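Now for my pick.
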Amino acid sequence: MIKLVYYKLYHEGYRTLMAQEKTKTKKDNTKIGAVIILIISAIVFIPFGGYEVIQAFFGKNKAPLFGKYNGKEIRYEPGTTFTRATQNLAE
């Protein structure tokens, strides 16, 4: 009788322990995946977005460059065609 009780408790404890191990590995895999995605996002977005932020803080106090058309830079500065067009749209 004692052996049966011991055997039953041992195997139930073992099953519980194995179930806990499975949930730990799932949680660990989720954490590892989240960290990998975070690292990839940082590698991709910091160089591209960081360049614009650095230019804004340490630049030559120029208006941001929106692009180029026929070799002319498109900037939001007073008196430019782009500024007048945006002001007309705002009215």
